[in-house]
Amino acid sequence: MRGIGGALSMFTKKESTNRENHEEKEQQHNDTQYMKEQFAEARQFSRLEKDILAAVLSEEKTYTVLEAQQQIQQFMNEEAQ
C-alpha cells in the first residue's frame, strides 16, 4: 500500500505543477492588450459580440479580453433597460 501512496503523491504533485503553469499562462493571456481590429478577427467572440465591440471600442486604445467582455456586458445591460 505504501508504494501506491507514493506514486499517487507524485502524480498529485505533477498535476498541481501543471495546473499552476496553466493558470500562469492564462493570467498572461488575460493581461495581453489587443487593438479594436484584432477583436474583429477573434474566434473567441460571436458575430454579435464583434459588432458590439466594433461600436463601443476606441480605435486609439488597447483592451484586454476581460475588458472587452466587460464592454459587451455593459452594452447589453444598457440595451436591456
Unreliable runs:
none
Shape: globular
Structural class: mainly alpha
The number of helices is 4
Oligomer: single chain
Query: What is the count of β-strands?
Result: 2
When the domains are counted, the total is 2
Q: Percent helix among the residues?
A: over 70%
Sequence of secondary-structure elements: HEHHEH
Biggest sheet character: 2 strands, antiparallel
Question: What's the gyration radius in Å?
Answer: 20 Å
Can you characterise this structure?
About 75% of the residues lie in helices and about 5% in strands. With about 80 residues, the chain is mainly alpha-helical. The protein folds into 2 domains: about 1-30; about 30-80, no CATH class. It has a two-stranded antiparallel sheet with strand order 1-2. Helix 3 (about 45-55) crosses helix 4. The radius of gyration is 20 Å and the shape is globular. Pfam families: YqzN_YkzM (PF26160). InterPro entries: YqzN_YkzM. This is YqzN/YkzM domain-containing protein.
